[in-house]
């Protein structure tokens, strides 16, 4: 299975998703940089009756391995973390060893972070991977480790499952590895 090479994002590539629950919209720009890739996005939405506005930036190597990320909300909350030499660091608390086994991140308010393990790993149909994720919920911004399972069902079609079995979704992706439809949560515009 092949995706478009990261160099194709030199002039930037944009995508938008709308939330299927509540009110919400995300605009993402993915751009090739000299040392990898940068994803910048703005989100507005509503979750559990509360409205929010936020931005995030994710810097990756050319193979979609996350180096750092920053999240900021319009009400002043935020989180910034970086992965150096396989160790995660937070801008306020220093080294956070609980996350060192995580290569990928999952930001709860966006389907984009599903692209990270899909693009980072080489896949063949039927292959399944259990992945430790650094998960960041947008209500608290308190990260924790969660295990997720990705299965390649067909070229550009993946099943996503939480390891505890509480959620499963089939995720079709485009030639860039970006989610097209995330049942019950997001739909590409």
TrEMBL record:
Pfam families: Glycolipid_bind
Superkingdom, taxonomy of origin: Bacteria
Protein name, entry field: Glycolipid-binding domain-containing protein
